[in-house]
């Protein structure tokens, strides 16, 4: 229990640190934010309204406090005229879409990586192993900003099977999912192969084989669950890269999620929205990491014993 | 000194491993070739480019590849080949500078934290935790969005999180090295923390740091391309692979080469560095070398 509490505490600490860091950094922006947002020719009434909305007369700490209060009471407003957009509503709309995209990408990555990684580990240096390692090397190098347009040209323009952009139907998820998940698939294939190879060399696997268990049983009931544990931790950590990559992927496909919301807010210099988006991304990542960690402890008897 | 001590050696050859080339095998050699070519392209871009990368010719806009423009033209009729050749400069410059600054800064901070421990160590690790709480390149997006697009801001944004990996690596290595005889001997001889760090620890850290940096360069190049693609990287007009892809995505239907050519340049460059890094890692990791077995 102690470990769990410590984990939660350190997550909260990181979240608070991220909030403070983002707030202080916004405060360091050179020049008057009012000029940056409205331009220097803006009317005095608008300037004053913006000054009020951003609480520019207060110190950075008071401002951060007000931001937290507004965010927690779900009443945080956009910081560009007419200051009416409720930030929470926009995020509540966009966040589930990005979450779905991240989950389908993860599912896609696992669907590709599991069979490939297992096949490669069962016959090291065989043809499937060569394919898996080639895939791992390529997948890590191909940038999303290249894969995305390539998939659009192939499947949306040439073959006309899938929509070019947007999310009018579930089909709109297919190409963004492949674009976002490819790097993770490559990484996981490599990881699963290495982990399974290690496990297959362990004593308990040899014992299971010596008992005369059928090979499939040894593989799936003895070796595989143990090989999956290190992969689980990595999946949690890789989700950060997935969320960062989502911003790029969403722009390629004009996908109306958190990434597009963030880029739009940056474009409009809507500081409240930018700050809220960055923190929403960060907190989602921290929560998933925490859950992965707790799941890991729940699943691995060796870690459970130690508590 | 050691020559005077009669060491219990069974076989001289066992401790003096055969000299091995730094880069061996097909993959790492290919990587080295790609990286070398990329460096040459970046250095000689002004002489290799058939056109001024910013020369505008509206009548030649978005043309497919031809003799005058081997890779076609982009918006405003600028030559894609020249843009891609000049783009190698920006990409490599950001990749190398951001990685070098991160590596030096992170290694020194992490090694010092591992060496002196205590409050300094605790504080540094909490700062690293906070910076690693941001997913992927999100913090870099935030930093460049606030500071505005410029080459210096991109490098700063990448260093802001980039140093943390080196700090963790150096700290972990130092914690492992600290109990080794040569460090204990130096301490017993009265060496200060700083002297032990500079004379004994840092030289032993160099291998792992160089390997990590070899993977850091393509990471930073990818990040620069992503930021420029998002309109947050280099200022408008600067030839950058990411910015060219951004422009090209608007013309996928009529001029797919504008997005695909610079994207391929990024992919090949990153692949080259990764292959080279794999080779160096195998070479410098004692578990992977035949002499260590």
| Helix content class of chain A | over 70%
For the largest interface, the chains and their residue counts are: A-B, 48 and 48 residues
Helix-strand pattern of chain A, N to C?
A: HHHHHHHHHHHHH
Describe the largest sheet of chain B: none
Say how many strands of chain B there are.
0
> What is the overall number of helices of chain B?
10
SS-derived structural category of chain B:
mainly alpha
Rg of chain B, please?
23 Å
Radius of gyration of chain A: 24 Å
Low-pLDDT residue intervals, each spanning 5 or more residues of chain A:
none
User: What would you call the shape of chain A?
Assistant: globular
- DSSP strand content of chain B: under 5%
Report the major sheet of chain A.
Answer: none
| Helical percentage of chain B | 55-70%
The computed structural class of chain A is mainly alpha
H/E order of the elements of chain B?
HHHHHHHHHH
- Name the beta content range of chain A: under 5%
For the structure shown, list the relevant keywords.
heterodimer; A: 307 residues; mainly alpha; 13 helices; 0% strand; globular; B: 293 residues; 67% helix; elongated; disordered C terminus
């Amino acid at each position: 229990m102690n470990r769990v509490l410590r984990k939660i505490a350190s997550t909260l600490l990181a979240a608070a640190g991220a909030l403070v860091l983002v707030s202080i950094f916004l405060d360091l922006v050179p020049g008057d934010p009012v000029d940056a947002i409205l331009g220097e020719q803006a009317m005095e009434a608008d300037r004053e309204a913006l000054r009020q909305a951003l609480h520019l007369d207060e110190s950075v700490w008071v401002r951060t406090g007000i931001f937290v209060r507004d965010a927690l009471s779900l009443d945080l407003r956009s910081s560009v005229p007419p200051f009416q957009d409720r930030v929470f509503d926009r995020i509540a709309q966009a966040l589930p879409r990005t979450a779905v995209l991240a989950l389908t990408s993860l599912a896609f990555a696992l669907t590709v990586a599991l069979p490939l990684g297992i096949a490669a580990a069962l016959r090291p240096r065989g043809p499937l192993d060569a394919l898996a390692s080639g895939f791992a090397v390529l997948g890590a190098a191909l940038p999303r900003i290249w894969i995305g347009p390539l998939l659009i040209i192939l499947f949306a323009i040439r073959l006309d099977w899938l929509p070019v952009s947007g999310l009018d139907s579930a089909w709109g998820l297919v190409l963004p999912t492949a674009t976002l998940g490819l790097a993770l698939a490559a990484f996981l294939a490599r990881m699963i192969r290495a982990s399974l190879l290690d496990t297959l060399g362990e004593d308990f696997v040899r014992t299971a084989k010596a008992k005369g268990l059928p090979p499939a049983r040894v593989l799936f009931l003895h070796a595989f669950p143990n090989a999956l544990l290190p992969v689980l931790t990595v999946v949690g950590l890789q989700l950060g890269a997935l969320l960062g990559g989502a911003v790029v992927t969403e722009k390629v496909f004009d996908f109306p999620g958190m990434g597009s919301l963030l880029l739009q807010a940056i474009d409009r210099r809507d500081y409240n929205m930018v700050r809220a988006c960055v923190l929403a991304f960060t907190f989602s990542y921290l929560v998933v990491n925490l859950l992965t960690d707790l799941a890991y402890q729940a699943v691995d008897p060796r870690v459970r014993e130690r508590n | 000194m050691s020559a005077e001590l009669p060491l219990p050696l069974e076989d001289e050859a066992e401790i003096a491993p055969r000299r091995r080339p730094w880069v061996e095998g097909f993959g790492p050699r290919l990587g080295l070739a790609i990286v070398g070519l990329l460096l040459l392209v970046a250095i000689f871009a002004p002489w290799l480019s058939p056109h001024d990368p910013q020369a505008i010719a509206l009548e030649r806009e978005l043309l497919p590849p031809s003799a005058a423009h081997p890779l076609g033209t982009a918006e405003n009729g600028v030559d894609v080949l020249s843009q891609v050749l000049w783009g190698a400069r920006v990409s490599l410059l950001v990749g190398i500078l951001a990685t070098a600054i991160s590596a030096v800064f992170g290694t020194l901070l992490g090694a010092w934290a591992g060496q002196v421990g205590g409050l300094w160590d605790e504080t540094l690790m909490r700062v690293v935790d906070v910076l690693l709480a941001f997913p992927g390149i999100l913090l870099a997006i935030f930093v460049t969005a606030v500071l505005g697009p410029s080459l210096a801001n991109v490098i700063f944004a990448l260093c802001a999180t980039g140093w943390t990996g080196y700090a963790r690596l150096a700290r972990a290595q130092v914690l492992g090295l600290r109990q080794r005889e040569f460090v204990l001997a130096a301490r017993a001889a009265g060496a200060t923390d700083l002297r032990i760090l500079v004379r004994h620890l840092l030289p032993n850290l160099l291998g792992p740091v160089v390997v990590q940096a070899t993977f850091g360069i393509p990471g930073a190049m990818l990040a620069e391309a992503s930021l420029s693609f998002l309109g947050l990287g280099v200022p408008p007009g600067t030839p950058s692979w990411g910015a060219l892809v951004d422009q090209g995505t608007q013309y996928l239907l009529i001029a797919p080469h504008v997005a695909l050519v610079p994207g391929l340049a990024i992919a090949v460059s990153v692949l080259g560095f990764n292959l080279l890094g794999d080779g160096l890692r195998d070479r410098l990791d004692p578990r992977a070398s035949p002499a260590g077995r």
